[in-house]
Structures are given as structure tokens and as C-alpha cells.
Predict the 3D structure of the following.
Amino acid sequence: MTFSPVLSPRPNPPGTKMATNATAAKAKALAILNNSRAVPSPSVASTPGDGGLDLAEQMNDEVRRRFVSGTRLGEGTYAIVYSGHYRHDPSKLVAIKKIKLNADFKDGIAMDAIREIKFLSELSHPNIIQLHAVFSTKDQNISLVLEHLPLGDLEMLWKNHSISYGGADIKSWANMLCQAVWFCHENYVLHRDIKGNNLLISADGTVKLADFGLARSFADPGRDMTCNVITRFYRPPELLLGCRHYGGCVDVWSTGCVIAELAIREFFLPSETDIQQLSVICDVFGIPTEETWPGVSKLRHYEASFGAAAPKHPHGINYWKQRFPLLGEDGIDLLRGMLRMDPMKRLSATQVLQHPYWTNAPRPTKKENLPKQGGGEKTMGEDLKRRGGEIETGRLDKVARKLDFGAMKK
Amino acid sequence: MSKSARAPGASSKRLAEDGGASPLSHSLHSLSLQHSSPSKPARSPAVADPSSDICPVCKSSRYLNPNMRFLVNPECYHKMCESCVDRIFSHGPAPCPIAGCKRTLRKAKFRRQTFEDLKVEREVDIRRRVARAMNKQESDFETLKDYNDYLETVEEITWNLILKIDVENTERRLRLWEETQKAERDPNAPRRLAEPDPSLPSDTSHVVLKKGATQRKALAASSGNTPDPFGTSDDADKDAGFVFHGLKKYVPPEPEKPFNPFGGWGIEPKYYVFQKDYDVDWLTRQKNDPGHLVGGYDMQDFYSRCLREAFGGLGIFIEDEIIARENQASGDAGVGTRSAATAAAGGKDVDMSDVF
């Protein structure tokens, strides 16, 4: 664990003010370390003198007492989200995400929560949601104290047709998103669930990447990873074809889809099933062959998907120019670079940020001038409660929601 | 400022004390519309005058022509009907047809009057023009007193123009002021010779119908690249029209820095040199495994992560950090965006350094 951005080879934030400033999440971890050291004698640690609480419980209580949780903003099968604030200063708002006890993980914490805590406490970047603290409550539920992001998400933004925006605004949002992805990858974290409604907007208009419930660190060579991640519309072809070894390029595909979505104000590659998703992708990008994507025919689902299919060819540049007029020539070039079928040819997150699109005119809109909407706390609750990989528009979702008695009551 | 310019200010003060009938409005009456035609005496604005429905030029009345519209020209504010304007001024500038008024009018400047009282109309026009030139704000001045002095001067100029006192000089200074202001804001803009605004009433306005060759030459000489004798050497020896005490010097905004797509963040290894490839036995199998290559699994990511994790803790001194953290425990925490966010949300910055 590294705490010093000054000397650490971890990415250094701009300016020097961060240098002396241990960030919250890290400070939390540090504080545990620090506190256990600062506790003067082993007597406190060993003898539960005050009410039979051991040190860990005392520390947990202390964290819990720092926050006041307020109204319930949303409830899903996975978590309940409350608004809240610091006890000593009610103007410091937070969102408290209380993970529900899960039937699958009777003797522990849900995987999603573990991942979220693990990676959010490591990552500190203006475009990644901030984890202020973690505590557990009496009923053994774990609660994450997250940054308060009241202005809705990117998907709501493009769906809301009363808001109009242009190329510079898209560039600004896309850049914040790409910075977040780059920062994750630079710290060897795969997000694996990048989509419009995981990109929340803070009060000042900054886009923040949230929901690290499906995140993992880059795998060691030879270790299999699951290919059943990432919400379907944003899932890259190598995952649909059952590839077990992948890298940051999966997030780059999802990022490209989000940018495309912003530019056309509808889902770029919508589909009903995983198989249909693959054909939707191939309608645009053609069916991959050994020439266009070396080794693709060895992938698990390749034969089943394309064994007998007639060859399809990718759309030419004119298709892109017609469909994405808001991005401009260089924007289309970047988008096509991010959405290449062969992951080895796809741009990496660093290459994405090095693309001339960002520095060419028009200059990205300053975040204080970006079009905003009042998504309000309600959507923040809706977004944070979701489990990774869920799509809400499915017919079955509705059925499941009916069985959710907690939601029925409200 | 001329002494007489003070008079309206003084009289208005008296007016406020009296709280009643206005010597000011009387003086206005006599002054502002001194060219009104003798056939049409100054009307009281409150009374609906049947004569207002008769065009003073062609004498046609609303009875004969229900769609009649009256227009005025800000040059002399004489009313006439639309058809007269069309008839007289369609072929270019012509003198005002009202007897006693010698001004040359242009059709383009004719407009419908906004206020029933033409004196008000004229005063609003003048105030608009003065406000366009004298557009300083309180923040542009060192002290409130300086700002108030400035406002007083502005009011003086306005009344000078309204009451036609020292108009020529005031106009000249106003134009000079406008020019210097413009030059200060945009030093690269081509210098134009201050041209009299034809929309403004000035006693001596002598309208040149067509620019003569000599005039054009003079214009070109002063606006061209040739350095004019006293213009570019700037403020010190140049008459800026007005001098205001305590006016801050205009500081042009800093040019924007080029956009940094990485948001200013960067990383470079300090304690090691990163190679493209590392030749180790236990990795050769994965390195050549098509299953790894096809999915975009990048061995370099693995190498750099191993190195980063191996060297990550070097040069980290936790004691120093704890001291630094405690020193700024109550200080401003956090990234700029977050403080901006909470500020925008109406809250204060979240201090996250004190989890315990």
C-alpha cells in the first residue's frame, strides 16, 4: 500500500496540494493502521473494558457515529441507498449505500461489496466516485459512505430530450470518462461495467465513474477470467465469443459505446440476447475472420456463432460520418479506434487520451458550462442500488421487482 | 465640466426638496424641442391631442387613412407619417420638411417612437448612448468614492447632452474615451477615426452626403498600417477624453492553456526502467499462447504491474505522512472538483482527512 503521492510511482495528481493530502479512502486504511499504533496500551485492545466491545467494534462505532443517514433514496435487490451527511457538519452530504445481506453469501460479504470497497479505497481521482468510509451496522450489514452525486447520470442526460448539447460538450464528458478509465487501468483495475448509468454527475458537472461491483485487478498470465461480465449492450466481441484472457481493451470498447451513445442519443448496439448482441455488432463491424482478427476462430463460441454464417463486411467511413456528425472527423477516427473488433488492434486507454481529438477544436466545454439537469437524489439512489451488469428494461426485471417486497411497500 | 452642467443637478435636488411641480421639466420643455414647428405647439403628453392624428407634413388625417403610422428620426424627433417618409427620403438623404428644421435625415434612421413623450424618447436614446461608452462598474475602481465620482461625471455628461450644453466638446471627449477604451481592450484592432454618430443630435452636425476623395485618403492613412503620430505611444501623452481618479488599469485575461486530456495527471517510474519484454522461462508458455493473444491480454501490463508493485513502497515514509496529515487536519481537504461540487451544492467542503 502506498500513501505518498509525492514519492509513489502511482499516478501523481496535478498540482502539489494533493501531495500532503492523504485521501479519504486511503486515510481510512491508514487510520486503522495509525489508530492501532496510537492506541497507547495493549490493554484497550485486549480487554474489552467498555461494554464488551473489542477494538474493531469500537473503531467501527466511531466511524458509524460520524455519519447521519437520512431519507431512503432507492432500494434494489442488492443495496439500499440513503442520503446522509457528516454528523459534525450537516452541509457535508454523502450517500450511504447499505449492502443487503445476500442469500448467496451467508457467511461473508457479497463479492460486489468486497470489490467495490477494495478498489474504491485504492483509487482517488476526480473522475472516480469517492469512498469516504465503510462501516457495519448491528445487523451485520455493511455500509459504504460514498460521494454525493446529485445530478443524474450520462444515460439520463442523453435520454432527456429537453436538454440539447453539442460536440464540445460530448468531448468534455467523453474526456472525463476516458480519464477515469485510464486511471483505473493505470492502477491495474478493470472496471468491467462501464455504461451510461454508471457514470454519475456531480453537482459541479464532473462525470464520475461509479459501481465497481464487477471490477477486478488485471489477471496474472494463465489465470482465467470470467467472460460473463459487462452489461450486454457494452460487452465487447471477445467476451461474447467466450475469451478467458483479456485486458484493459474490454473497458475501452464499453467506453467507445458510451461515447457513441452520447453522440447519437440512443443505444448504439442494443439487443435482446447475448447471441443477438453478437450479430448486432457484426452488422456494423462485419464478421471477424482470421485475417481481420488473428486467432478468432479458436475462440470458444466462434464456430457456434459464425460457423455457417455468410460473410458480412464492415460499414465504410460514410456510415460513421452519417451516424456521428457531432463527433467530427477526428472524433470518428477515435471512436473507430476504440471499437475495433480485434482487441490487440483496439486503442489502449492511454492511446485514447493521446489521440488528437481532445486537443483539436472545438475545445471541450468547461465543466461549469456543461448542460445540466436536475436528476436529483432519486436517480443517484437508483444508480447506486443496482447490481453490476443489470439491465433494467428487460421484461423479467419487472417480474423480479414484483417479488421484491421491500420495493412493493414503498 | 461646464458650470451650467451642474445646474440641472442642483435644480433636481431642489425639486426633490420641493416635492412638487418641476422647474426642471419646464427647462426641458424649452430646451429639448426648440426646433418644433411653429404650427405645432408643444403638447402636453397627458392630453390626447386630436392633432396627433394629422401628419404635419401632408396634413392627411387618420380619418382618411386609418392605417396611418407616424415615424420619428432621432436626428430631430419630428413626427411625420409613413407615406411622407417614403415619398421624401426614398431617394437618399433629404432635409427635414418641417419648417425651420434644416437637418438632413436618412430614411434608415426613421423608427416608431417608443414613448409618447418625445422628450423622454430623446433622453432614453442619449442615456443609452452614454451608457454604452461609460460602462465601468464598481469593481473597476479602487474605492467607492472614486466610483461615485465617476457616476457623477457620467450623469453630468448625460445632462450636458440632454440640455444641449457644450455638446460639441462633450461629444468629442466621449468619442475619444470610447476609442481609448476600445484600444485598451483589443490592442490589435484597427484604429478607426472616430466618426460622429449620425443618430445623435448635435447642433453643429454637418452631414457630409458623400465622402470626398480627400476624406477617404485621410481615413485610409489613419486606419492603415502607418503608425499615427501620437496614437500608438499610448496613454501618457494622449487625451483619453476623461480622466477618472482611482480607475484600475485594465488587465487582459490570461490566455487559456492548451487542453490537457490527462487532466494534468501523469506517471513515470522513478526507480526502474521499463523494458518492452522480459525473457523469463516461466512466462514463455503464456507469451506464445494464442488464447492470451486473441483476447487482447497484454503481457506488458503484467510486467509493468509487477514492477510497480515491487517498487511501489520505496520512498514512502508513513511517519512523515502522518505528521503532514495531522498538520493539515483542519485544513482544506480534497481535490478541487469536490470542493467545487459541494460549494455548488450549497455545502462546505467535505473534510475527509479525519476519518477517525
Q: What stands out?
A: Chain B touches chain A through 71 residues (CB under 8 Å). Confidence is low (pLDDT under 50) at residues 1-48, 194-213, 218-237, 330-356 of chain B. Chain B is about 40% helix and 0% strand.
